[in-house]
Amino acid sequence: MRLNSGATASPRFFHKPLGYVSVTLRLRDDSSHFLASLRLRMPAPIRLRELIRTIRTARTQAEEREMIQKECAAIRSSFREEDNTYRCRNVAKLLYMHMLGYPAHFGQLECLKLIASQKFTDKRIGYLGAMLLLDERQDVHLLMTNCIKNDLNHSTQYVQGLALCTLGCMGSSEMCRDLAGEVEKLLKTSNSYLRKKAALCAVHVIRKVPELMEMFLPATKNLLSEKNHGVLHTSVVLLTEMCERSPDMLAHFRKNEKLVPQLVRILKNLIMSGYSPEHDVSGISDPFLQVRILRLLRILGKSDDDSSEAMNDILAQVATNTETSKNVGNAILYETVLTIMDIKSESGLRVLAINILGRFLLNNDKNIRYVALTSLLKTVQTDHNAVQRHRSTIVDCLKDLDVSIKRRAMELSFALVNGNNIRGMMKELLYFLDSCDPEFKADCASGVFLAAEKYAPSKRWHIDTIMRVLTTAGSYVRDDSVPNLIQLITNSVEMHAYTVQRLYKALLDDISQQPLVQVASWCIGEYGDLLVSGQCEEEEPIQVTEDEVLDVLEGLLVSNLSTPVTRGYALTAIMKLSTRFSSVNRIKKVVSIYGSSIDVELQQRAVEYNALFKKYDHMRPALLERMPIMEKTATNGPTEIVQTNGETEPSAVEPKHPPPVTQPTNQANDLLDLLGGNDVVPVIQTTMPTKPASAGGELLDLLGDLSLSGGSAPAPAPSVPTSQPSFLLDGLSSQPLFNDIAAAGIPPMTAYNKNGLKIDFTFERANPNPNIAVITIHASNSTEAEMTDFVFQAAVPKTFQLQLLSPSSNVVPALNQGTVTQVIRVLNPQKQQLRMRIKLTYTHKGSPVQDLAEVNNFPPQSWQ
């Protein structure tokens, strides 16, 4: 009773063990079953198709990102729970997200698990994921080497195919070394499905480990005898790779394997075979295989007479029998043309290839026209006459609306210019210059200058052509155009009156083209008396007074369109006219006004001219006499070109101070430090801060005036006595530049040839001092884009002295259409072997390029 009453009095004493404990034990025992049943009741992940449909409904990027993040979280949870049921589906969805650009690296190990699975569907997704998510930079890919090896020996060809595809796509060099034997075995199998995949995999193995190439050589013997086009295609790709990578393999296939006759036979069967629905593309039998065979023939026939002879007939058949109405046929014809141009083909076959390109120019497809122009541009140097037959079609392409086609047509048109067609071609190109976009004007003007200089039928035509360019595109011309035209005018003595009259008329019409204004100012200053006298015989003379001429020049001085350089030309022209006109008092007044100009350059000129009027008036007629005929020493303009404020001025023809040197001492020392500065001497610059480079004997005596003790630094150039106006006297010598240089019969040499830039050295001896070698560098550019901001620097050991003159230009024209020249004078008193270190800097296709080189192979005649 006490017990019952106790139980009644304290029910918790009895009910706690019976209730609480029993429930707790039951929950503990059933917890695993409960969680398992809970997982079974979880909804299955959505299918890939549903995920794609859901993502495509997203209206914004943020909404799509939210869907992806939500699905990635669910996929991660499934991976953590080792859910084998839906691993394949989750990896497939992850690959789709990876294709959209979202991170999917957390699925790499899951791909390896799928590869290790025995199910084909799992392996397929696993290998696909490995190809997309793995590469040789990650060590995870090495874990799958054993799986790939097992699958390469699998009994099912499709599993073997998956392994071959993966190895050929992302196999590292280590994997390729380990598995090359299995690939070589599959390459010899009779199964066409596996052979074509093994051939492509072998290509990847050779690219990664070239020394394994010989392993596959025995297997290649019977590849081309296969009837299956897939095997033939991949076999040709493998043979092409082997020939490109190994000259020994190329020679082996040419002679031992007799590869060319086999390829010719296959190509002939493709051309002559009837309709085959399995391989037909727009009426042409397997054009992809034909293109591959043509590329391999191009490699085999290059620089080989026997191989080229064996393929001449089949190339002619392809060129004449291929249908051109479809783009497929055009692709085959293009490859045929490239093959004909690369091998040692017959002349008639080359003409046939160029005629095919000429037909391409008439095609409505812009891409085909562009390809034709590019190909003709490459062949115009070797087959000039054949390309000339399509000149009218090429010129018509200048009117095309497509910018790329117009540029290629312009480049090809300049390449076609010769002495016979110069007048007609220049007429078309000048018309193009008038109407073309601004982006073409600089290149077109430069091309016209080079062509006119090379093929001008007469000096008058040359002058008219350059003046036409300056009138229409003066602000786009190259820096050396002004000194080039001034030199041309100076040397054309019989054309002085005609030229100054034409330039004066042009000056009255337009003063916005600064290069034209500079040339006109210089000519009026030199030949103003001929302009006023009206002695022009080439055309009807104009009546001009001295005051009218001075009014025009004074107008240039005050015009807002005139640059500081142009004002300097105008003031110097007015000063020159003081010995040609009678209005000396007016000229004195104008010159004195600018003695207080805020432009320091103009002020210095005016002050020195005033001193000439007052203190040295007896010397003025001799100093301001006409310039003598200039001897041209460079192909692209006078040797000495001084740049001021972005404009170009010839120091050989214009008496003015140059600006501070373009390459200061500290820059030269930086170059020496870079080149190994302890055993070299700095470059002696032609333009010194205190004295401009002249065109006469002062320049030639510059090295002779230096201390030749062999010290590390050159002595300063002697200054002109203060009793004479040094600024005015410089540049007015009657001696032509380098008039004492005589050829010494020294053979030229190539000092540098890299990335399309070639530097050639030619040598001469200076007559007064045989210890001085005069080296002229010729920089040419074989690439399709010009090299701008070109700078050549050099340094020599301490026992030498070196003087580097200014270059003819800082732009190296593309496609070897011109050269940049620069003169180097080297003093070698001890007759030691010449050594030189050079530094080249330039801009190519918008990217700065810098390179160093050492030249030690100078011919003995240059230093002995």
UniProtKB/TrEMBL annotation:
Pfam families attached to this UniProt entry: Adaptin_N, Alpha_adaptinC2
One BP term from GO: vesicle-mediated transport
Membrane topology designation: Peripheral membrane protein
Name of the protein described by the UniProt record: AP-1 complex subunit gamma
GAE domain residues: 744-859
Family: Belongs to the adaptor complexes large subunit family.
Localization per Swiss-Prot or TrEMBL: Cytoplasmic vesicle membrane; Endomembrane system; Golgi apparatus
Keywords attached to this entry: Cytoplasmic vesicle, Golgi apparatus, Membrane, Protein transport, Transport
Cited SMART domains: Alpha_adaptinC2
GO cellular component term of the entry, any: AP-1 adaptor complex
Gene3D superfamilies in UniProt: 2.60.40.1230, Leucine-rich Repeat Variant
Entry coiled-coil feature ranges: none
Tree of life domain: Eukaryota
